Amino acid sequence: MTGTRVADLTVQLGRTIALTNVTVAFSSGVTAVVGANGSGKSTLLRCMAGLVRPHAGSVHVAGHSLATPDGRRAARAALGYLSQRTDFPGSYTVREALRYGAWLHRVPRAERESTVRDAVERFALTDHQVAELRTLSGGTRQRVYIALASIHRPSVLMLDEPSVGLDLAQRHALREVIHRASQDSTVVVTTHDIDDLVSMADRLVVLAEGVVVFNGTVTELDATGDRSNVERQVRTLMTGAQVA
């Protein structure tokens, strides 16, 4: 779980500088990456997943540099990634989708069925495993997608806005799933939900216009732990202003 970091990372998309000199190390547990739309949250995860190449700087995932072909191959094997736009054929059952995920992540054939059973249990999908994906609620479908991203028990699991569109009860259940996933993986999750920060994250990275304006724990941001005050502090940081 060590060696996951970006250093002096600058990313340019067209004429837009999406990230500027970003340096962050990700340790065990859950790190929440927060920022307004266009702040660079998704770009950071896409860069760490090897989907976007940086203009400058370095990326290491589970100790593997993305600067070399061998490093990128090793990093992909150690990584689980769930994008905002993840979709899957709705006619697949949960169990069929998980089998496909195990194959896609190169789980050995002899271990696939036991891997699928383990994922079903870990992500509380026992009652849904023969249901088609299109029949599931948004929260249950997100659990399936996280199970797909982490079925090979990656060292690093990255989730891009997994709680978008979920109601309060579904977000609470999702936070429990993410907490369980963090027992095996370093989890990096982008979010705009302040409850996620207080209830789930061990560390917090705030981006404003592609620049890191805070990197630390929620307690370091606000020692009182008061939700309304944490929210005020985060929103102040997201505007690029200084926290009082």
From TrEMBL:
The organism's place on the tree of life at top rank? Bacteria
Note the Gene3D superfamilies from the entry.
P-loop containing nucleotide triphosphate hydrolases
Q: Which GO terms describe its molecular function?
A: ATP binding; ATP hydrolysis activity
Q: Which UniProt keywords apply?
A: ATP-binding, Nucleotide-binding, Transport
According to the entry, every stretch annotated as the ABC transporter domain falls at 4-234
Say which family it is in.
Belongs to the ABC transporter superfamily.
* Protein name, entry field: ABC transporter domain-containing protein
| Source organism of this protein record | Cellulomonas uda
